What we know:
With about 150 residues, the protein is an alpha+beta fold. Helix content is about 25%, strand content about 35%. The chain has 3 helices and 7 strands, in the order βααββββββα. It has helices at about 15-25, 25-30, 125-145, and strands spanning about 5-10, 40-45, 50-55, 65-75, 80-85, 95-105, 110-115. The protein has a 7-stranded antiparallel beta sheet with strand order 1-7-6-5-4-3-2. About 25% of the residues are buried.
Amino acid sequence: MTKPSYVYVTYIATTPEKAWRAVVDPDVARQYWQGASGPAHVNVSDWKPGSRWEHQRADDTRTVDVVGKVVESTPPRRLVITWARPKEVEDESKHSRVTFDIEPQGAGLVRLTVTHEDLERDLPMLAGISSGWPIVLSNLKSFLETGRALPRS
């Protein structure tokens, strides 16, 4: 049976370099990477292939909610990472994969495609993925275009 995948595409009035920085720079991500009611998060790594990355809460706890490895890093065009719960990091069958493709579409416009694939049929994770990415990517778009993320509910 095929594992579920999600593909999200958005067009953002920005440059590839600014979109890349928004994905990999914790100071920028803190501004927009949040769910509807959860805490803001940052992504921490040196972003070199083979390196570990962590999705940490951007509060004093620095709780790590997701971990993985950098599979591919081609700034400012493509980032591929694995994605797993911290307690499942040793079980590669539980890892999914996220690809960020940033494509210039002319002066000051990029197409950002985020593909999250190889998801386990794990209902809490699937629910988080299917509702989380649209919020995060909408916030990213708003932040890059206006300097502000969407208001939190």
